[in-house]
């Protein structure tokens, strides 16, 4: 996020500069991909805590730790909602870039 700040300042100072705005769109796409990857890996871990894995000899732990499973499931849902918001941000940024 700190890397985005100089490009954001350039876009505020020079609103008609297209290259910094295009770089911001690319960075938004990279950030969205990172959030989707993190949410997907977290959902795999939550799936293993709920169901376990017979092949790996992992037992389901949600019978013992119900609060952990509820909180981790909600965290995964919030992560995917954040990815959806970032996808909307990329679309809005692209449309704004095209209009200028």
UniProtKB/TrEMBL annotation:
<keyword id="KW-0472">Membrane</keyword>
<dbReference type="InterPro" id="IPR044173">
    <property type="entry name" value="CASPL"/>
</dbReference>
<protein>
    <recommendedName>
        <fullName>CASP-like protein</fullName>
    </recommendedName>
</protein>
<keyword id="KW-0812">Transmembrane</keyword>
<feature type="transmembrane region" description="Helical">
    <location>
        <begin position="22"/>
        <end position="48"/>
    </location>
</feature>
<dbReference type="InterPro" id="IPR006459">
    <property type="entry name" value="CASP/CASPL"/>
</dbReference>
<keyword id="KW-1003">Cell membrane</keyword>
<dbReference type="InterPro" id="IPR006702">
    <property type="entry name" value="CASP_dom"/>
</dbReference>
<comment type="similarity">
    <text>Belongs to the Casparian strip membrane proteins (CASP) family.</text>
</comment>
<feature type="domain" description="Casparian strip membrane protein">
    <location>
        <begin position="2"/>
        <end position="85"/>
    </location>
</feature>
<feature type="transmembrane region" description="Helical">
    <location>
        <begin position="74"/>
        <end position="97"/>
    </location>
</feature>
<comment type="function">
    <text>Regulates membrane-cell wall junctions and localized cell wall deposition. Required for establishment of the Casparian strip membrane domain (CSD) and the subsequent formation of Casparian strips, a cell wall modification of the root endodermis that determines an apoplastic barrier between the intraorganismal apoplasm and the extraorganismal apoplasm and prevents lateral diffusion.</text>
</comment>
<dbReference type="Pfam" id="PF04535">
    <property type="entry name" value="CASP_dom"/>
</dbReference>
<keyword id="KW-0961">Cell wall biogenesis/degradation</keyword>
<keyword id="KW-1133">Transmembrane helix</keyword>
<dbReference type="GO" id="GO:0071555">
    <property type="term" value="P:cell wall organization"/>
</dbReference>
<dbReference type="GO" id="GO:0005886">
    <property type="term" value="C:plasma membrane"/>
</dbReference>
<comment type="subunit">
    <text>Homodimer and heterodimers.</text>
</comment>
């Amino acid at each position: 996020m700190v890397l985005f700040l100089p490009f954001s300042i350039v876009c505020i100072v020079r609103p008609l500069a297209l290259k910094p705005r295009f770089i911001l769109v690319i960075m938004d796409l990279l950030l969205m991909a990172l959030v989707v990857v993190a949410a997907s890996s977290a959902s795999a871990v939550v799936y293993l805590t709920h169901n376990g894995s017979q092949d790996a000899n992992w037992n389901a732990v949600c019978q013992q730790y119900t609060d952990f499973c509820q909180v981790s499931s909600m965290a995964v849902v919030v992560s995917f909602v954040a990815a959806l918001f970032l996808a909307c941000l990329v679309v809005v940024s692209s449309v704004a870039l095209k209009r200028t």
